Amino acid sequence: MACEAWRDKLDAFVDGELSPNAQQEFDAHLRGCASCAKDIASRMQLKTAVKRAAALRYAPSVEFRRKIEKEALPRKRNPRAVLIWAPAFAAAAVLLLVVVWMARRPAVTPEMAMLGEVVDMHVTALASANPVDVVSTDQHTVKPWFEGKLPFAVNLPDLTNSPFTLLGGRVAYLDQTPGAGLLFQYRKHQLSVFIFQERAEWAKMSAKETPQRHASFWVETWSASGLRYFVVGDTSDANVEQLANLMKGAAGAE
């Protein structure tokens, strides 16, 4: 059973709809409540499954819409026929409204979908009892741990005199592609850094010089030396950008 005090906030947390203060409080709660963490993990699995199913949704053709419109148009009938066919007309009208709604609904761009997946990975890590596979504040421990697990080297920044602490790392997956998942601590906040090999469809993403808001999280992404980087956090955009700059420096991107 999830804690009663937090039950109503589980879905809002998964959807990134909590305020920054509530987000911070929930993060702290999850680190000490296995029940809520388990419920969050289940919701994240369901959310991922729904996203994959939505990507396969049917897009009606122009000919199909015209056919429905033609069927829904009123025709001259005798009063008895009108009464008989009224339910059919009503059903056709409802179907037409659904078709028009689906056709006009704003499309989710590949970039938005990918950022959503990255944010979901971060939320899943926050809710996990074991968010990292190698626990260490030492970059010299985490970096060699990835060797042999990934087809690229993971370069980590020197965090001396920075407000960030490295908590550890794990192998993450985006579109079934393995990459590095790093977890950092900033005061009471946790930020994730994900690194994957660059792909052609990702390279087409518009360049962003500053973090972008996605749900209740800040996300900054860039490409360097054939790798794609993502920094995700619910702290301020300045903190996300600061960590991103540290990662860019370590990768020789600046």
Q: Please, could you describe this protein's structure?
A:
With 254 residues, the protein is an alpha+beta fold. It folds into 2 domains: 7-54 and 108-251, 2-Layer Sandwich (Phosphorylase Kinase, domain 1); 62-104. The protein has helices at 10-14, 20-30, 34-54, 62-72, 79-104, 110-127, 139-146, 200-203, 237-251; strands spanning 134-135, 164-174, 177-186, 189-197, 212-214, 217-224, 227-233. The protein has a 7-stranded antiparallel beta sheet with strand order 1-2-3-4-7-6-5, with helices on both faces. The longest helix is centred in the middle third of the chain and has 26 residues, at 79-104.
Q: Which short descriptors sum up this protein?
A:
254 residues, alpha+beta, Phosphorylase Kinase, domain 1, 2 domains, seven-stranded antiparallel β-sheet
